[in-house]
Design a protein that fits this description.
Layout: E1 4-10, H1 17-30, E2 35-41, H2 46-49, H3 56-69, E3 77-81, H4 87-96, H5 101-105, H6 108-116, H7 125-128, H8 130-139, E4 145-148, H9 153-169, E5 178-181, H10 209-217, H11 238-246, H12 249-261, H13 266-292, H14 295-324
C-alpha cells in the first residue's frame, strides 16, 4: 500500500508560474510514488473573499484545468473539489468543539494576513477557524504526509495538535500528518517581489504567449544598467532570478557574466528567458486548449475523483461518529 499524501490549492484566483514551480511540479513527481489526493479548496476562498464570490466558480474550473495541464494524471492521483464533499464541513464543526481559541490565535498567518489585507474585514470565525477547516481537509483522508516548504511546517503543527487531541479525548483514529519537506524555490514576479496575484506581478499559466512575452520584456532589471554599455549586478535583476529556475547552467553563466561585463544587453538576456519560459509553458498551453475544447472530459474527471474521495471521507466520519458516541 502506498502512503497517502494530501494537498490543495485555494480557488481565489488564477495559477501562475510560482504555483507551478513551488507546488504543481512537485505534486506531479509525487503521484508516481504516493497515493496522492489533490483538491481545490473553494470553501477556503471564502475565508478572506466572502464579500465577493463571483469568481469562485470560474477560478475552480481554471485551476482544475491547470492541474491537469501541468501533468497531474487522474489515473495516478485523486482530484476533487472540496465543497462537493460535505463531510469536510461536518468534521470541521466537530473539531471546532474541542479546539482551544488560543491555538487558532497563535497560527503564524492569522495576524500576518490581517495586516496584509487591512482593507478587508477579517474579524470572522471563518478566518480565525480556517486552520481547523484545513485540518479537517487533511485528516479526513488520514493522510500521512502533506508536502510543504520548511517555512510552512508551523502551519501544519496545529493539524497535528488537533488530531492528537481528538485521539486523546475519544479514540485513536487520526494519524498525525507529517510534513513532506520540499525545497520550493522563490519565484520572483515582474517587479522583483515574490510572484503573487495580490501584487499584480504574476505570469499566469492561462496567459497567452503574447502576454507572457510582453510581461517579461517589461520586467525591471538592475537600475545601474541605464545603457547597454553599463556593467551591472545580475543578482539585483529579477530577470536573472528567473534564469536560475528556467535556464540551463550554461545560459545562467552567460547572462551573469554578460551583465557584469556589459557583454550582453537586457533585451538579449530577456529573449533567452522568454525562450525557456515558453519551453515550459507550451505543453501546458496545448493541454489547456485540449481541455477547454472537451468540457465533458473535465466533468468526468471531477465526478470520478469526487466519488473516490467521498468514499474515504464517509468511512472516516463513520469512525468519528462512533468514537464520539453519536446514535447511528
Amino acid at each position: 500500500m502506498k502512503e497517502r499524501v494530501l494537498s490543495g490549492m485555494q480557488s481565489s484566483g488564477k495559477l501562475h508560474l510560482g504555483n507551478l514551480v513551488g507546488a504543481l511540479s512537485n505534486w506531479v513527481r509525487l503521484q508516481d510514488t504516493y497515493d496522492c489526493y489533490y483538491f481545490i479548496a473553494d470553501w477556503h476562498a471564502l475565508t478572506t473573499g466572502y464579500a465577493d464570490t463571483s469568481a469562485i466558480k470560474e477560478s475552480t474550473r481554471d485551476i482544475l484545468i491547470n492541474f491537469l495541464a501541468a501533468g497531474l494524471d487522474p489515473e495516478k492521483c485523486t482530484l476533487f473539489i472540496q465543497s462537493r464533499i460535505p463531510e469536510h464541513a461536518e468534521l470541521h464543526l466537530l473539531l471546532s468543539m474541542i479546539t482551544p481559541l488560543g491555538w487558532l490565535e497563535r497560527v503564524p498567518t492569522y495576524k500576518e494576513k490581517q495586516q496584509e489585507l487591512k482593507e478587508r474585514d477579517l474579524s470572522t470565525y471563518g478566518f480565525l477557524g480556517y486552520p481547523l477547516l484545513q485540518t479537517a481537509d487533511i485528516i479526513i483522508y488520514r493522510a500521512k504526509y502533506v508536502p510543504v516548504g520548511i517555512d510552512q511546517v508551523p502551519h501544519l503543527e496545529i493539524s497535528r495538535e488537533v488530531a492528537r487531541r481528538f485521539n486523546y479525548l475519544y479514540k485513536e483514529i487520526f494519524p498525525e500528518p507529517e510534513p513532506l519537506l520540499t525545497e520550493f524555490p522563490k519565484v520572483v514576479g515582474t517587479d522583483g517581489r515574490k510572484m503573487s496575484k495580490s501584487y499584480d506581478n504574476a505570469i499566469y499559466l492561462s496567459d497567452s504567449p503574447v502576454v507572457v512575452e510582453q510581461k517579461i520584456r517589461t520586467m525591471v532589471t538592475d537600475p545601474a544598467r541605464v545603457k547597454k554599455s553599463d556593467p551591472g549586478n545580475p543578482e539585483l535583476s529579477p530577470v536573472y532570478q528567473l534564469h536560475k529556475i528556467f535556464s540551463s547552467k550554461e545560459e545562467i553563466e552567460r547572462v551573469a557574466d554578460g551583465c557584469r561585463t556589459a557583454g550582453i544587453g537586457c533585451i538579449e538576456c530577456k529573449k533567452i528567458l522568454i525562450k525557456n519560459v515558453f519551453g515550459v509553458m507550451e505543453p501546458i498551453w496545448s493541454k489547456r486548449q485540449e481541455l477547454l475544447d472537451s468540457p465533458d472530459t473535465l466533468n468526468e474527471i471531477v465526478e470520478q475523483g469526487t466519488e473516490k474521495a467521498k468514499k474515504i471521507a464517509r468511512e472516516t466520519m463513520h469512525l468519528v461518529r462512533e468514537a464520539i458516541g453519536f446514535f447511528s
